[in-house]
Specification:
Length: 370
């Protein structure tokens, strides 16, 4: 059995559902803006959020932020171990560090001590720019082996101080390098792994790179929590991450499937599909808002390996139900009317102008978002 950590009530590793993370882009010491963004992320489905802690003001803001949010908070620390101690004392649920840049073993020991006292896990974060010179020399530069070796050297450092409540992430901007390094880690350690492709780029390119890298690993059963890192508002990271997990059958909720438009199509398929997708998102967000308001946002409560409810939007009345027979719900249309089908069987005909409304009524009356 692989190891497990618990971050503010959210389990990571050892068979727990794959959780979704993001990071705020606000100034952490601007408490109102940071809280507002975290709460938006929570409503969208974010389960763990990270904040930058570049100074004392940010560390001391953590307590005020924690009072106003419903999901676990991770303090992101670089270079100054005293900030990690302040963040832990202020109420952070996890500390993210690179132990090698804290200024020596004594500083890493101090962080391990406060985290053990507070029962806080530590995420060891290694990327292609943070590998020590000696490891780079040994492995001939930035390679999967050097990333893995760097991560394990930090694990060994914390283990020396009797600290073992650890999650590991190794990331690179290269998809293949990220995948190879995580595969090595999966084979060599039982610690839970945080997956992501760092510096993945703007929204479109970043989603593609992240989906390939994270998806390849999750399909192999590797990885316990994910962040889709985008040069875009963090809210978009959550949407992409949840859609990725749905595509892999690792997240409930709603999944839209739709056929590509072709010359046989007699309806505005693209517009209809976009409308259905938008309304399904609103339905899911409504459930997220309820969980957020009731402070019941824990990954194990509403995720798991139950596949999502699939909703099909097809452009051809003749072939639609057959091609989308695996869908839980579906529609297809012609000139003046469309059909609603379930599991490939037609249940009713509906005027085209009311097709989407009738579809959503059926879904809302019989299912919940998560």
């Amino acid at each position: 059995m692989r190891k497990q950590i618990i971050v503010g009530g959210v389990k990571i590793g050892a068979g727990a559902p794959v959780s979704v993370q993001s990071m705020t882009n606000t100034k952490t010491d601007n408490v109102p803006e940071t809280v507002a963004q975290i709460n938006r992320l929570a409503e969208l489905g974010c389960e763990i959020v990270r904040v930058a802690v570049p100074g004392i003001a940010a560390a001391e803001a953590i307590g005020k932020i924690k009072e106003q949010i419903s999901i676990p908070l991770v303090a992101d620390i670089h270079f100054d171990h005293k900030l990690a101690i302040r963040a832990a004392n202020a109420g952070a649920d996890k500390i993210r560090i690179n132990p090698g840049n804290l200024g020596g073993a004594d500083n890493a020991k101090a962080v391990a001590k406060i985290c053990k006292t507070k029962n806080l896990p530590i995420r060891i974060g290694v990327n292609s720019g943070s590998i020590s010179d000696d490891i780079l020399a040994k492995y001939g530069g930035v390679t999967a082996d050097s990333l893995q070796a760097s991560a394990m050297s930090h694990v060994e450092l914390l283990n020396r101080f009797d600290f073992d409540d650890i999650c590991i992430s190794v990331k690179a901007s290269s998809v293949s390098l990220t995948v190879a390094a995580n595969r090595l880690l999966h084979e060599s350690t039982d610690y839970p792994l945080h997956l992501g492709v760092t510096e993945a780029g703007t929204e479109y390119a970043g989603i593609i790179k992240s989906s390939v890298g994270i998806g390849a690993l999750l399909l192999d059963g590797i990885g316990d929590t994910i962040r889709v890192s985008l040069t875009a508002p963090p809210e978009r990271e959550i949407k992409a991450a949840i859609m990725l997990l749905k595509a892999l059958g690792l997240r409930g909720g709603y999944e839209l499937i739709s056929c590509p438009s072709c010359g046989r199509c007699e309806i505005d398929l693209i517009t209809i599909a976009e409308e259905v997708e938008h309304r399904l998102e609103k339905l899911a967000q409504g459930a997220g808002a309820v969980r957020h308001k009731e402070n019941t946002f824990a990954a194990a409560d509403y995720t798991g390996h139950r596949p999502p409810v699939t909703v099909a939007v097809m452009g051809c009345v003749v072939n639609g139900p057959g091609e989308a027979s695996r869908a839980d719900y579906g529609i297809s249309g012609g000139n003046n009317e469309g059909i609603i089908f379930k599991k490939g069987k037609v249940v009713k005909k509906v005027p085209m102008h009311n097709l989407v409304n009738e579809l959503l009524k059926s879904i809302e009356s019989e299912t919940i978002a998560f």
